[in-house]
Amino acid sequence: MMSGIKMVSIVFALILIVVGLIPLLNYMGAISFNLPKIPDIILHIIIIVGGVLLIIDAFRMPF
What is the pLDDT of residues 13-39, one digit of tens each? Predict the structure, then answer.
């Protein structure tokens, strides 16, 4: 059974992959669609939340 924070981390990782990969694939011509322009404040919030989740997961990992 997955803990709550682990599930949140997985969902957030998928969001980060989509936000980063779709524009890259569009730029390379692999796909023909793109995400609409995301405001900078939203991107900053996504990056901050991702960093916080990484720190939490790092402290929860067994050595």
Answer: 898 899 889 999 999 999 999 989 889
d(CA 13, CA 8): 8
Name the CA dihedral angle for 10, 15, 18, 19, rounded to a multiple of 10 degrees. Answer: -140
**Does 3 or 30 have the greater pLDDT score?**
30
Where b means 16+ CB within 10 Å and e means fewer, 2-27 reads: eeeeeeebeebeeeeeeeeeeeeeee
**Distance, CA of 24 to CA of 33 (rounded, Å):** 11
What the block records as the tokens of 57 is 């997961």
